[in-house]
Amino acid sequence: MQVYVNWLIAHAVRQPDKYATLPEAEVSTWLSDRWQRCAWQQACGIVQSWYSNEREIPPVLRNLCIQANANVVVIEPSKSPAFDFWLRISTLEAGKPVRVPILLYGRAKDTLNEFPKLCTGVTLNKRAGQWYATLVVERRGPKPKAATVVGADIGMANIVSTSTGGRYGQISPQLRQRVARSTAKRRRKQKLNACLKRKELPPVDLCDHRAEAFARNEIGRALNQMVDDLPAGAAVALERLTVKDMRFKSRQMSRVLRAAQLGYVRDKLKFKLDERSIRYRSVQPAYSSQQCSRCGFTFSMNRRSQDKFVCLWCGYTANADENAAANIAERFSDEELNSLPFREVETALALRFMRRLPDARSASAGLDTSPGQPGGESYKRSISPVQTPV
Ligand SMILES: [Zn+2]
User: Fold this and answer.
1) Which residues are found with C-beta within 5 Å of the ion, ligand 1?
2) Judging by DSSP bridges, how do beta strands 98-102 and 117-127 pair with one another?
3) pTM, two decimal places
């Protein structure tokens, strides 16, 4: 897998194809075709997310982690009360699988009773010399069609802000204080570790587990409130955030929530929405904090402070997070923006804005009433691919 990862990066394959012909001439291996394909598919996934997160240091696979689909690992029911399942794991020798009996801990059993459908894939991880299997459950039943869309902006002045004006999880003075204390503590530990390293002693754990637990508790409470406040039948538009975006946001918030915690907020929110069968979609987040949700004018100076948005074109004034959340909600069904790479969004937004200017509209008369575009409200949403040079 590592060799394939290196090969894909060396050849700058940004969108690797899982089903492509394998570079057999360049990568020599004793693996069977089937196992080569497995390794290749995993490598494709790793390289794709490496590129989309715009990382610079090539991935090095250190720990054994097998994301096994049903070709490799199968869960079989146990007929003995002594254990819960068999894991049938394929090996390099065809027809000679290994069967491992597994016991689940109590909470896992409760979860299985609640969500009886097991997904076919199993993840196997090796930590501290022990193998762990992660089973995933699935809830049956389609989610209802949504009547309205609520946009959610994660973590600027609040943990979450919605386009309906809700602000959840104010970064409280207590949390701020805790973060300051925790940062000071981390610095002391880093100094200590430098000393320990000189004396060739093992380092201490840098993580402040209590501060982390405090933050997670605040996050959980904020998200519960947010989900409770959603209007019935609403869907939620979330930002599609990469590790890089989260680092940027984290810096903007002066590290009250670390990038990892912002990722936690997003994952936890998705989990809570899934639990309640609420539809959601991750949308293109580019420039959502600089775009005016009323007229569409996008400009960095529109956002003059952390919490205030003032459109320099139309004068629309709003809470900055609420404005961003409104843009995110608007992008829920904006197929054009959602398919564009980040760097092309600014141009697309500028062109849309210009088309909406009164003189531009008269110049392209008839656009409003062209077939398939009923004009008025939907005009803004259903803009055809742009040809106008600017
Ligand atoms: Zn405006």
Assistant:
1) 292, 294-295, 297, 311, 313-314, 316
2) unpaired
3) 0.64
